[in-house]
Amino acid sequence: MFKKMIISAALACAFCSASSAMAAWPVWDEFRNDALDNGRVVDKSDDRKVTTSEGQSYAMFFALVTNDQVTFDGLAAWTADNLSGGDLTKTLPAWLWGRGRGDKWGILDTNNATDSDMWIAWCFLEAGRLWKSKEYTKKGMAMLELLKKEVRTVDNLGSVVLPGRVGFEDNGTVKLNPSYYPLFLFKRFALEDAYWNEVYEGSLRMLLRSSPAGIAPDWALFDKGGRLVPPNGDDYEIGSYNAIRTYLWAGMMSPDDPNRAILMKHFSPMVEATRALNMPPEKIHTVNLTVNDTGPFGFGACLIPMLGNDRTAGLVRSVVDSERLSGESYYSSMLALYGRGWDEGRFAFDADGRLIFPKGR
Questions:
Q1: What pLDDT does residue 22 have?
Q2: Cα–Cα dist 3/52, whole Å
Q3: Annotated catalytic, 115?
Q4: Residue range 312-319: average pLDDT?
Q5: Which entry of 34, 43, 68, 115 is annotated as an active-site residue?
Q6: What are phi and psi of 50, to 5 degrees?
Q7: I want to staple 327 with a disulfide (CB 3.0 to 4.6 A). Which of 35, 121, 158, 296 is the partner?
């Protein structure tokens, strides 16, 4: 009996030691406990209980931030097995998985989402660095090679990554999504392969050129000469659920990257629109700047890095901080984790796109 007690105590101490190595973050724990199911993030707001490569990639990021290698590995394994035919180093993941016809579970759309692919590659590279694992680094490098196949060079614009394999090129035009380009990811990639410096530069031009009035559209169309096709239709005239992330990524750039200041100035009209409403608008017209109503709490989280510490910033923080994070509010919850985590100093990015911890972990 005494021997069993000693063994039990030893196991308990080992568990406590492993747990203490993880960086505690209550709101992430809240979301993880509600939305993660055996390695997949479930979007409970969708009746099909879908999982997206986006959700997997974001969750891998937060697992890395909290030093949770068990959750990281579970997410990576589920993604590989269910979205990439068993191997992320050979096939970029399908973007959508869930319950289809006849209650059959599986891939619902085989196209990829390149922004998610980039986040996963970045996570592997940073996991390799932070956890001193050559295996993670190897996976990240292999994914970078796959991503090169999605890069297109547009005259007078530069090298940009298509949003996915299929459906974004037509008669010399390319359809791009400004929210798919966190520039610090390309900075990190360039530490491994200088090829990505050109993609960084082309992506910066795209961000500036796609939003002449300082408002990012959900989608932007460029002709073969690198000119923005005049916006026509809601996809191109409205900035909403896609575009909101553009401001988040720009605001989280390192202040040591001079292009952060350029983007902050360029997107200042969105900051002013947020101040006028005390929250970002759900939809804003990219040409005449008309707005509808305020967006959900995740939208507020996306503007926190750009707002600073004025009255509006305080109001937005109070709204974001008051919300429970769950799979029922999957998208806003993920955005809130980014905005709140950055704002609280739980993570940041250096000038080369590496993950840093301003307040330790």
A1: 83
A2: 48
A3: yes
A4: 98
A5: 115
A6: -75, 160
A7: 35
